[in-house]
């Protein structure tokens, strides 16, 4: 303990799994009582309380925890208290980082009385305590997985209900038809059984104003964050329709375990082989008959096979890479055949322009396929030709541009000045609380001062973080450029651009409108025109240069 006045934020956390497998000693109420009793004995003032009830300790993106960090950054407290280290978190690496590095480095005193942990002490047993909390996290994950596996084997639906169904009111693991969306699913299968394409079905649903699956979940069923809700499209697309037509859950079967998490600490999911899926038949009311499902699958397969078997079918290498710069839609392959020529009239066209959907792009991008191939190939060959000196120059320029907005000559001195100012503000905060405690400062004036001090400290902290981030960003940029050009050194010259090479180097391409010569209304095959083509490379992003390029110009590198 120090002689400084301790102004504490108390943090309480309890996961849903701990409610099931834990005990009363871990409850939010019990944590609150233990912390308050400890603070009373130690003369610590609790400024605010932050709670995450129902959040796992495996990650730190919890609303209560993040709110506490913002509160601390505003200078409203200088101490954090949790009942024990497990309440801070159960991930060994992250918990240790916050307890032993982040809080001390930001002038925050962290206490966990249940483990006799004090960030100002030696804490010899801390590594073992963090490790045991990590073991508990893994053990709880194992128990949850066993419970889910048991439910799956019994045909219970232990997942988010698919579009067309909802969970029964009496039980949370039985699917029943959703009266609002089940008719839409049945309509999709009926149209598909008539031979209509997924694009045609999506267009009809959009024209009728039918709410698509993710948007329906956001608006009427599930709780989404603002960030998650923003991802929900207002319109149907052919991939959503195709996904519904291939889902056997609409036959009344429960199919789970299609993906699995990489590990207990990762959110990333990997596909599971079909033979390992958990499939239980006839577990709920079907929305379509086997005959309807088979017929829809037949027409779906026929269309796919016909295109794949057609030797003249255009197979674009830019799928998932080329996008319209105006609306963000993917570029699809299109064109016509004239006098037996296909490649000459092969284009990439904005998907929202080509399909003529109700949200049709007003400035849809369009570019000749061969022209884009040549532009990307030439750009790549230019990069492959750089020597070590040129690569170093490019890297230095990228670092310089990244730091251009900082406007700081001496980072070390600026960081030292920020630290001095922050310490002075903390002392002023402590003095103000002492004056208020003895009656020399009114509550209203104290609140006014705390608000001003908080803003000043937050501004200093933001400046400090920007400086620290910028310093580490320099090395991050250098590492990215080193990785990119290490890969580039495996190639000497690209004669023909294929999909493997494209995906090795290119992350995204954004195609804009054509800029035709003055007085010209259409692009002539014999003359060049200008067009915005932005190429974003893997690891390093967009290279410096002019995005507006000359197209239809003979270039050989």
UniProtKB/TrEMBL annotation:
<protein>
    <submittedName>
        <fullName>Resolvase</fullName>
    </submittedName>
</protein>
<dbReference type="InterPro" id="IPR050639">
    <property type="entry name" value="SSR_resolvase"/>
</dbReference>
<dbReference type="Pfam" id="PF07508">
    <property type="entry name" value="Recombinase"/>
</dbReference>
<dbReference type="InterPro" id="IPR025827">
    <property type="entry name" value="Zn_ribbon_recom_dom"/>
</dbReference>
<dbReference type="InterPro" id="IPR025378">
    <property type="entry name" value="DUF4368"/>
</dbReference>
<feature type="domain" description="Recombinase">
    <location>
        <begin position="162"/>
        <end position="306"/>
    </location>
</feature>
<feature type="domain" description="Resolvase/invertase-type recombinase catalytic">
    <location>
        <begin position="7"/>
        <end position="161"/>
    </location>
</feature>
<dbReference type="InterPro" id="IPR038109">
    <property type="entry name" value="DNA_bind_recomb_sf"/>
</dbReference>
<dbReference type="InterPro" id="IPR011109">
    <property type="entry name" value="DNA_bind_recombinase_dom"/>
</dbReference>
<dbReference type="Pfam" id="PF14287">
    <property type="entry name" value="DUF4368"/>
</dbReference>
<dbReference type="Pfam" id="PF00239">
    <property type="entry name" value="Resolvase"/>
</dbReference>
<dbReference type="Pfam" id="PF13408">
    <property type="entry name" value="Zn_ribbon_recom"/>
</dbReference>
<dbReference type="InterPro" id="IPR036162">
    <property type="entry name" value="Resolvase-like_N_sf"/>
</dbReference>
<dbReference type="InterPro" id="IPR006119">
    <property type="entry name" value="Resolv_N"/>
</dbReference>
